[in-house]
Amino acid sequence: MRTSNTTILIVDDEPAGRDTLEAILYQQGYDLVFAADGWEALDQAVHLTPDLILLDVMMPGIDGFEVCRRLRADSRVAEVPIILITALDDRESHIAGFEAGADDFVSKPFDRFVLRARVRSVTRLNRYRRLHDERAKFERVVSLAPDGLIILDHDGNIRFSNPAWGQLNDANDTPIAGSSIERYVHDGEYFRQHVFRVRENGEPRRWESMLLGTGGMQVPVECVAGAIEWEGQTAIQVIVRDITERKQAQSAIERSNIELSQAYDATLEGWVAFLDLRDKETEGHTQRVTNMTLRPAK
């Protein structure tokens, strides 16, 4: 079964040219899309954002050089690689193509093996560039996050960490990537169990743990873990939040509740003693009244 994650836009005003390129590239597993002129190429490029554009130079209307310039001027598709296909093999044409923004040339009539090799090379480089850009964007975002973030492999080793993670456990000046998570947590086995359950069933998990901070001090944290793809493999992302203030607030509430309970018990005991005293005073008063009533009768 033919599968592909790579889309190639083929631009040629000649049906025979499009058919030839399709015959050469289709069996290589690419998803092929076609445009018959420069205007259609511009529309298709913006709509699809292909991984590569194979662009014929000699076309009516706007030629390949102009299409190339317009693509490079459009921020939505400016990074898409372009290979110009041309029967022009002179030095000036190549210079004009590179100045327009082309990444490579293939001359007509072309060698199918050379064409396949160049397409494979350009699409591979573009894929690496996209991965690099996505990772750089990800790292910029998480570097500003207030919560710690780590990415673990299946063995529980750290593949990536942000600055906030280093601040939580005083590890900013030591290498973190490649080290075991157990180096940084008080309850390593308990931590691993949660991570492995995420790996097994793919369901996010939330739990509390203790990090080893400065001088062996333990830092209470809340952890939220989920499965992600990292560098082409399944990994576990863990967001770690310092809950020291929350724990302190909970402890303060618990102490207040205890103090209130003790105060209530003390107050209740006081009222019991007071009522008991009142009962005794009432009993004495009743006895005196009875005695005074009985005296004249004697």
UniProtKB/TrEMBL annotation:
What's an example Gene Ontology biological process for this entry?
regulation of DNA-templated transcription
Provide this UniProt record's keywords sorted from A to Z.
Answer: DNA-binding, Phosphoprotein, Transcription, Transcription regulation, Two-component regulatory system
Pfam families named in the record: PAS, Response_reg
**Where in this protein does the record say 4-aspartylphosphate is found?**
56
- GO CC term (a single one): cytosol
**Molecular functions per Gene Ontology:** phosphorelay response regulator activity; transcription cis-regulatory region binding
Domain annotation Response regulatory: ranges: 7-123
Q: What is this protein called?
A: Response regulatory domain-containing protein
